[in-house]
Amino acid sequence: MVLLYNIGIFLYRVLIRAAALFNSKAKFMVAGRKNWRNQLEANIEKDAKYLWFHCASLGEFEQGRPLIEETKEQFPEYKVILTFFSPSGYEIRKNYEGADVICYLPMDTKSNAKAFVDIVKPEKVFFVKYEFWYHFITELKSREIPLYIVSAIFRENQQFFKNTFWGLWYRKVLSSFEHFFIQNKKSAELLKSIGIENFTISGDTRFDRVATIAKSAKQFDIVEKFKGNSQLLVAGSTWKPDEDLLIEVINKQKDVDKVKFVIAPHEVSPSNISRIKQLLKKSAISFSKIDNSPIENYDVLIIDSIGILSSLYQYGNLAYIGGGFGVGIHNILEAATFGLPIIFGPNYTKFKEAVDLVDEKGAFSIHNFNDLEAALSLQLNDKNELEKASEISKKYVEKNVGSTKLIIKKVFNRLG
């Protein structure tokens, strides 16, 4: 099975190198790992003690971030190395000040794993949510370096829980973890079903992150001026299918409805911003073009900048989160922490917080234009319904904070 795994990694490397000729993401992946050993040796302080945090991409980083920052504050004797697998994480957070060293995770080969651990010599290692790289995990286990997985969530269709040759082999990887910090009871039941008991149901560290965001949110007076006395829907991380539905709703709005819209597309390229503007029949302006414009006279504000969405939710009465007509919705907790009822597309069931909030009536899933129009009408035209859903969202976040402190207590009390 190890041979098959190695062949899979080899083929993946070949495909990535081929794709790099025409795909920018693949190009970043290849370039970012070039000469990684020399670069890592140059950046690592040989006499320092390191904690290693690994995140697949940006979403996992947001989960790991509260833990990184809390350990840095409580245990300043450690330095932090942060690795990413994907360019969408590394390229955005390569200048993150909370880590001392930031780099790509080398491809999971036996020689790479040995060389990486030789150079870093981590005291403790934290993988976030889904990462299960065989050679790195095996190398850490052989050196008795404790490895933890945080904010993990397991599902029945994962290989670990299948009685196939591949599943039984890959299941052994889990025995190399010192402890599992998992999100829910279902994950606990699955781990128990294959004889794993070293876990703690600690919840999701993202709740701690969004609670911090809410306390330190940036103020945008211009957005407050844009909103005025109107109700405001903030649409975050939208894709074309989301935008097409929203545009249809916006174009049908009457002036007497007194509803304004902020659209923050996932794709902020000039061509996409232009496409949205051209389809809108209402007055719209880009965030970067506001200057001295009479912002209060516009109906739609299009966010063509990155890094400010999480703070914009504070001005909303209702949120629409994109991605639900694709592979899955984006982060809904950034909106929920401000007490916004949330609307999203049908592909949300992989996200525990979305399932929970739909069950509790703090969030609403839609399949088409009629669903969206009905959800907006219910929330924006019925003050009691809006307040009720808003309270559900806010309390949901409040009751789930605390995962970071639980993990730190469990891990670092063992230092003696």
* Principal-axes shape call: globular
Secondary structural class: alpha/beta
Strand content: 15-25%
So what's the CATH class of the largest domain? Alpha Beta
Percent helix, as a range, is 40-55%
Number of E-type strands: 14
Give the low-pLDDT segments.
none
Query: What integer value in Å does the Rg equal?
Result: 23 Å
Number of domains: 2
Largest sheet: 7 strands, parallel
What name is given to the CATH topology of the largest domain? Rossmann fold
Structure report:
The protein has about 425 residues and is α/β, with parallel strands linked by helices. The chain folds into two domains: about 1-210 and about 400-415, Rossmann fold (3-Layer(aba) Sandwich); about 220-395, Glycogen Phosphorylase B (Rossmann fold, 3-Layer(aba) Sandwich), CATH 3.40.50. About 45% of the residues lie in helices and about 15% in strands. The protein is built from 19 helices and 14 strands. The strands form two sheets. It has a seven-stranded parallel β-sheet with strand order 3-2-1-4-5-6-7, sandwiched between helices. Strands 10-11-9-8-12-13-14 form a seven-stranded parallel β-sheet, with helices on both faces. Helix 4 (about 60-75) packs across helix 19 (about 405-410) and helix 6 crosses helix 7 (about 135-140). The chain is globular. The two termini are about 40 Å apart. The mean pLDDT is about 90.
